């Protein structure tokens, strides 16, 4: 399960990386995000109605109604920040978005925690000529249901698809890791058929990844 990642690539570099026209970049002068938590905003690449790529900001986590089991009263909406690769084309929460609203989630690293009290944080990134080469995770997006909208929050949300852990992630989190897409597969993920998209939901090769930071209480990506 991924519940914290970073997205520290500058907006202009992100726009060029994902082949987004200047007019379709809606992030302004957004600062690098050293920690993206569920329910907080982050950059997302999606398709416009005319099929062009655009950079927009969305809150992380599909929202669903949350009712207290004790009182029966409505609580703050639950945020579903991860979608299992084996359920995206069957689960009612994910299926429509998987078929119609796939997106790229720009990132520079992601964190998994091992142990408890205190846990040790491990930040995973891709190998490359720079400390944390930017990459994209496979994502889905949707508009927040009207019944759950709040005036002070975005009406767009995204979620990250997870798959089985590879050899470098498994010792820390034995079950899941985010789906990291190869750059050559970005277009297929955004525009391909559900079957073509499903074929991309594999774990990323461990030999192309590295642990860039680890320690107790390390809550953000320091970039070192």
From TrEMBL:
Any one GO molecular function term: peptidase activity
One GO biological process this protein is involved in is: protein-DNA covalent cross-linking repair
Which Gene3D superfamilies does this one have? SOS response associated peptidase-like (3.90.1680.10)
Record EC number: 3.4.-.-
Point out the coiled-coil segments of this chain: none
Give the family this protein belongs to, as stated in its UniProt record. Answer: Belongs to the SOS response-associated peptidase family.
Q: What class of enzyme is it?
A: hydrolase
Native organism is Yoonia maritima
Name the UniProt record assigns to this protein:
Abasic site processing protein
Which keywords accompany this UniProt record?
A: Covalent protein-DNA linkage, DNA damage, DNA-binding, Hydrolase, Lyase, Protease
